Amino acid sequence: MAISAFLIVFNEEKRLxxxxxxxxxxxEIVVVDGGSxxxxxxxxxxxxxxxxxxxxxxxxxxxxxxxSLTRHExxxxxxxxxxxxxxxxxxxxxxxRESPNSIQGYFIKRRNYFLGKPLRFGRQGNExxxxxxxxxxxxxxxxxxELVRVRGNTGVLxxxxxxxxxxxxxxxxxxxxxxxxxxxNRLIQxxxxxxxxxxALKPPTKWVLNYILFCxxxxxxxxxxxxxxxxxxxxxxxxxxxxxNVNR
Length: 248
Known about the structure:
By secondary structure, this protein is α/β, with parallel strands linked by helices. The protein has seven helices and eleven strands. It folds into two domains: 3-164, Alpha-Beta Complex (Spore Coat Polysaccharide Biosynthesis Protein SpsA, Chain A), CATH 3.90.550; 169-246, no CATH class. Strands 1, 2, 3, 4, 5, 6, 7, 8 and 11 form a nine-stranded mixed beta sheet that branches.
C-alpha cells in the first residue's frame, strides 16, 4: 500500500533536510512552500521532492492544499521540525498494509523537545496527534495549532516521532508574534473572546495545572522556561483578541 507524506514550510533550510531524510521510505513527498527566501527550494530539488508554492494565509488552509496534492490513499502529515524514526516508519508501513477498512486514521505519540531538551512531564510527555489517515477521510481545521479531523474510527500507534520545536528564545518570540495573532483572530471569529478577568487569570491557572499538578517542574530548567513562556503566550493571545475585538 503506497503512502504519501506532506509538509508545509517557510524558511526551513536548517531543519528540512533531516525531516525529508526521515521520510525516505514513503512513496511520495509533497512540500508546500509559503514563500521562503532561503535554501528551502534548493534542498527540495536536491532531494528530488516536489515543491509547490502557495502564499501563506493560515496553517489549516496550507495543509489542506498540500493534502489535495497527494496521490495515495494513505497520507502522513509531518512538519519540517519533526523526524520519523525507522521503528515508527516500519510500524506505519505495517499498519497501512494490514489496516481494516473500518479504520480511517491513527494517532501517533509525539516526543516534544524545547531548547534542545525533551519535555517528559506537564502533559507534554504523553501527547498523541492524529497524523496518519486516509486522504479522503481527513480535513484540517484551525488557523494555528491546526488539527486533522477524520470521519470514522481511529487507532493509536505504539511508536513515537520526534518534534524538535523551538531551539532558542529568538525563534520562540518570532513564532509568538505570528501564532498569537492568528489565535486572537480565531477567538474573535468563534465568538470566544475572553473577558478581561478571564484573559488575566486563565493563563496562570493553566500554568498551575501543567507545571505543578502535572509535574512540569520535573523537567528542570527547560520545564520552567517552557511553562512560563506558555503562560506569557496565552496572555498575549488573549489581550490581542480583546484589543482586536474593540477595534473592529
